[in-house]
Amino acid sequence: MPFQNPSYPLGELLTMVAKGKVQLPDFQRPWKWDDERIRSLLATVTMDYPLGVMMTLETGGTGARFKPRPLAGVILEEDREPDELLMDGQQRMTSLYQALKSGKPVETMDARKKKLRRWYYINIEAAISPDGDREEAVISVPVDRMVRDDFGRGVTLDLSTEEQECSLGYFPLRYVFDIGATQRWMWEYASDDARRERWRAFTETVLVNVAQYQVPMIKLTKTTPKEAVCLVFEKVNTGGVPLNVFELLTATYAGDRAYSRDHDHDFQLVEHWEKTLEELSVHPVFNGSDRSERLASSDFLQAVCLLATHHRKRGSGDPFVAPAASCKRKDILELLLADYLTWAPQVVEALHWTARFLNSQGVFAYRDLPYRTQLVPLAAIRTLLGSETDQPEVLDKITRWYWCGVLGEQYSGALESRFPRDLEQVAGWVRGGKEPQSVTSATFRAARLDTLLSRNSAAYKGVYALVLRQGCYDWTHSKDIIDATIFEEQQVDVVRIFPKAWCEKNGIPADHKNSIVNKTPLTSHTARLIGARAPSVYMRALETETGLPGNWLDDAVGTHLIDPADLRAGDFKRFYTTRHRELVALIEDAMGRLTIPAEAAPESTSDYQDQGAA
Q1: DSSP string spanning 431-459?
Q2: DSSP notation for 576-591
Q3: How far apart are CA 6 and CA 22, in angstroms?
Q4: What is the DSSP string of 262-307?
Q5: How many other C-beta atoms are found inside a 10 Å radius of the C-beta of residue 421?
Q6: What's the burial of 157, exposed, middle or buried (CB within 10 Å: 0-12/13-18/19+)?
């Protein structure tokens, strides 16, 4: 990655900023330095101390191209293409531009993040004093240039006129690169021999330092690829917030000249994504209780990239062999706007199908989604195969692949290689090829059920969904099986079959008490009736509440793969053994393969990170 190491005089660099020759890539986050840091930076420059290396990216080449924007405070009369993009140094350069070059108050904030508008001055006597503290010599004043105390009733420093500035010896740093303004101010200030001597010393120790100040630079050449730009930016970003691919693509797409020319506006990826989220939010499985519980932009981009790379490398008519699709960071950064516009609408349609598919598998809410990451290949598979996925035999294969991923707990790592492999191997399987690796390698140990204790585990959510999928009735709202509507309207959640208090009173081991084997989906109303009661007691209470004959309630309980006789007898051991066996059979049916018997592969909760009860 070729680069250059020029140094720019500070005044020349600020002029380049003012003229738009140096701008920011649009993915840069807003300028946010506070007043104290700006004063410290100005003191550093006036002492000719180093402020650190800055980094720019040369524009106009075949490498990365991003939409530019001026630094905060710069107003350009017309749009112009910059010569360089400032990759590192935004906070320092913006602070220096606004304080020394803009001729306007600096838009900053105090330590409590309260917005301020400030002018910056340097006290001449403090600056030239051998014992002076340069950082204390640099001050900021409000926009009216009057410093007040006593809640604004008294004035402690009045710099509201040039006469007052000169009288008190506070040089306005906004004049430092304006020779005419500096000379005019000097003639007002240097009214006697003592002041002329102070001005001479001030010129030597402050003004010359600033005028000759050199800013070291690393200039990345125009051939630098986007992936390298992203990595370099993260290494030098002192803000500590990683730059993500979505932000880079936002700037790249906004800088697409062909789109802007054809549509008279830039393409706004953020706006497009927000509209996509809004459209998909009709599905609870994509839309949780807060912004963190919803489809991620990275998931969407990966699905689009999988499809774009598959068709670009192989073509829609070629056979499915080794993966040609890819969705690594580098691939997404190279995703052309034309590709995004081609595949994004198709992925949206596929995600609508995906939501319906998940509902059919007993997954009705975002928090119960076993793997959000599995949405990526699932949507890509639907897009690639289209209406083929609606054929019963095809849907059966996709369903089996899905459950092998969930119950085999395969979607928690190494996803950049798994996504393209699953896309192409599942599609190939549908079209007569061999079983995908994600199916053939999937295993489930029966003893794992004893360690599925909370929603921290994808397999826990999977077993919960399988109980819903096979068709179960609530024990009070028992007219229809629990579907997506009942799930939402009646507030269905996991409920302990043998309540926590009963288990603790009767010495039930914690792993059995908290296991998914001892939990089942029921409405909030039924959960309240169960409460902390013994099963034999709450069964009678449920009969009284519903007015149903006991055998009808027993039938409803049976739809949860529970023998009601075990509840009425309070026989936890027999209940647990029987339901454990039933859930294993349910898992084997979903995966299309036998589980590993508990006696062959015992497990303990210490092997997993999903401990704790839900």
Answers
A1: TT-PPPHHHHT---BGGGGGG--STTSHH
A2: HHHHHHHHHHHHHHHH
A3: 14
A4: HHSS---HHHHHHHHHHHHTTSGGGB-SSTTSB--HHHHHHHHHHH
A5: 18
A6: middle
How far apart, in Å, are the Cα atoms of 371 and each of 41, 378, 387, 461?
48, 11, 24, 9
Q: How far apart are CA 37 and CA 555, in angstroms?
A: 71
Nearest to 463 by CA among 490, 494, 491: 494
Q: Which amino acid is at 29?
A: R
What is the Cα–Cα distance from 137 to 123, expressed in whole angstroms?
Answer: 5
**Entry pTM:** 0.73
Give the DSSP H/E element, type plus range, for residue 106. Answer: strand 106-109
Q: Is the pLDDT of residue 143 over 60?
A: yes
CA 368 – CA 365 distance, rounded (Å): 5
Per DSSP (E only), the strands in 322-379 are none
Residue whose structure tokens are 């996991």: 494
Query: Which one-letter DSSP state was computed for residue 605?
Result: G
Separation in Å, CA 209 to CA 44, 91, 176, 329, 485: 10, 21, 11, 44, 72
Say yes or no to pLDDT of 605 above 60. Answer: no
Quote the tokens at residue 238.
């002192």
Which H or E element spans position 41? helix 35-46
The sign of the torsion formed by the CA atoms of 437, 439, 444, 449 equals positive
How many CB atoms lie under 10 A from the CB of residue 287? 19
In angstroms, the Cα distances linking 474 to 222, 486, 525 are 64, 9, 10
Single-letter amino acid, residue 444: F
- How does pLDDT run across 99-131, given as a tens digit for each residue? 999 999 999 998 888 999 999 999 999 999 988
Phi-psi region of 189 (alpha: psi -120 to 50; beta: other; left: phi over 0): alpha
**132 to each of 117, 129, 138, how far by Cα in Å?**
27, 5, 11
**Which residues, in sequence order, are bridge partners of residue 7?**
216
Across-strand partners of 88? Answer: 55
Mean pLDDT of 217-226: 81
C-alpha to C-alpha distance for 317 and 107, rounded to whole angstroms: 58
10 Å CB burial of residue 192 (0-12, 13-18, 19+) is exposed
Gap between the Cα atoms of 365 and 441, Å rounded: 28
